[in-house]
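Incident log, entry 3
Record: YveK family protein (248 residues)
Problem: checksum mismatch between cached and fresh output.
Input:
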Amino acid sequence: MEETISLYDIFKVLKKRIVLILSITIISTLAAAIISFYVLTPIYQASTQILVNQKTSDQQTQIQTTDIQTNLQLINTYNVIIKSPVILSKVIEILDLNTTPSALSNQITVSNANNSQVVNISVQDEQAFLAVDIANTVAQVFQEEVKELMNVDNVNILSPAELPENPSPVKPNKMLNMAIALVIGLMVGVGLAFLLEYLDTTIKTEHDVEELLGLPILGFVSKITDANSEVPLTVKSKRAVRRENVNV
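Fresh output:
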């Protein structure tokens, strides 16, 4: 026989376990807030842009379409060179950083839009000013080294990174973390509520008996308290009399 559950049953379970659901939701949200505000280290980001564009000569006053296509093809190569140890080792030396080229490469993201000759270099670091210095130094070192590595002079710094007055971290996203924790806590609380309800097979009320047997209730025996019960008191008095007779 298949068991079915109605919306009323779902609402009844949620109402019955509302304290448990709210407790788990609040605890998970508070934990995410504490971790986001006091445990996780803020990460700042700085970006600089470079333009890949072949310089025109005196005889050539217009940029040919083939030159643009060549520059676009070179960008993929430039993206690899920017994060190579050849460039990053000199950046570490110039800024006297206590890191390795491999670790510094993980802090750098190089990207460009489709069919765009502008390359964006983004750097993330725990200190805002250091992220700015690294981004600008990477762009400058790359501009100088690409002349020897590729034998071309088509890289210009378009927009250097600048340090704002009140820098704001890009990570962690505190509000997003709290929202995710709230949703997860709510889902866990609801799931745990239905699990406990499924595992609870005890019969507590006459309605449980009616639902279990599928038969109508004709009557039930009320609970008799000690204050209204005379039977236990009578039994105790008889036992007391018997003990007195035996002692005599």
